[in-house]
Amino acid sequence: MMKQEKIVGFQLKNASLCAALLALSACGGSDSINPVKLNTLDGKPAMVVAHRGASGYIPEETVEAYAKAIEMGADAIEPDVISTKDGVLIARHDPNLAYSTDVASHPEFAARKRTVNVDGEVQEGWFASDFTLAEIKTLGGTSTDAERPQQFNGKYKIATIQEIVDMIKKSGRTITIYPETKNPTFHRQLGLPLEDKLLALLSAAGWNDASAPVFIQSFEPGSLKYIRSKGSKLKLVQLIDADDVDLKTGTLTFAAPYDRPYDWALAGDKRLFSAMVTPAGLAEIKSYADGIGPWKRYIVSVKGTVGTDGKVADVNGDGKVNEADAVTLPATTLVSDAHKAGLFVHPYTFRNEKRRLASDYKGDPKAEYKHFYALGVDGLFSDFADTALQARSDYFKEIGYNN
Ligand SMILES: [Ca+2]
């Protein structure tokens, strides 16, 4: 035994020898007892990111939505980051408060309604940059999806990024914060830049190096490059969007403002987001970021059935044509291509609604998660973190992985 213990002591520092001795269960850590090796970039389980909090159940990006996601056991919680008039960072997907709050039913703010160009899209509404935090705290969050619970509309307040950090600290466990700099050029043009404030806030929480439980994401490369230029070692994630899938062919479609990053559009860069998933695009991303957050259809696309009328058929006969009438196509090589480039892969967004699930999954959202876990994704964004966690647990049981 003595000899074996000495070997154990040595091989803890030697990963390859440790791997060779796996059968002896002699190595420390969970890797040692696993005959199954995960095909993620670092060999660790995929991270479940609660997209906008527990947004499948509670109005997104409210204090309660994040509390619920933490209670579910999500590995990470995701806020979109925008700025108030007084420069406070709050969690909201859109600068336009009409989209996700009850601002329209507040007569005291009626006069603030106006038309604003957001990243080339003309929008009418009430804009966070016209409101102080105190004013925004009088609003209630509302559901952004008519199929989801509506009974909480107006009841819960918009979370600040600081409140989310405080909730994480209070939770007593390691939870990753996964903020997205939202419309960063738009905010810079308003004189309310996001990046320095976000870095200062995270640094004050003690999070300022690569090992911190922080991933910062953006669709605009310029925002991530700026953060890197400030010397930040936090993990950075390039988001990769598209407009939609053409169900006739399964190919991705591109239309403004979802065709290219807004900073590329302003600079006259004509490349589409799809340029980012080529080997050259991935290598470029690796020069300023640590991973990618692609729309999941870059990894597994879906294709419908074209009827004799030349239109995509309503295969399940529910009167609507959507992804539930489509089948998945073979996976692309994006996960392995990104891994080869040294980038992790966190696709978005996974949801439970049957109309969003390809017919292969037979209405079971867990089947979709398992499909992506098996492809080696390093994490994923879900509106229903509880389902994603359950699917991961089921998947590990199925493949014999001891988590
Ligand atoms: Ca249908």
TrEMBL record:
Hydrolase listed as a keyword: yes
EC numbers on record: 3.1.4.46
UniProt family annotation: Belongs to the glycerophosphoryl diester phosphodiesterase family.
Positions of the GP-PDE domain: 46-392
Lineage: Bacteria, Pseudomonadati, Pseudomonadota, Betaproteobacteria, Burkholderiales
Main EC class the enzyme belongs to: hydrolase
Keywords: Glycerol metabolism, Hydrolase, Signal
Annotated organism of origin: Pseudoduganella violacea
Gene3D superfamilies (UniProt xref): Phosphatidylinositol (PI) phosphodiesterase (3.20.20.190)
InterPro entries listed in its UniProt record: GP_PDE_dom, PLC-like_Pdiesterase_TIM-brl
Protein name: glycerophosphodiester phosphodiesterase
One Pfam family, short name: GDPD
GO molecular-function terms, A-Z: glycerophosphodiester phosphodiesterase activity; hydrolase activity, hydrolyzing O-glycosyl compounds
GO process terms (BP): glycerol metabolic process; lipid metabolic process; polysaccharide catabolic process
Catalytic activity: a sn-glycero-3-phosphodiester + H2O = an alcohol + sn-glycerol 3-phosphate + H(+)
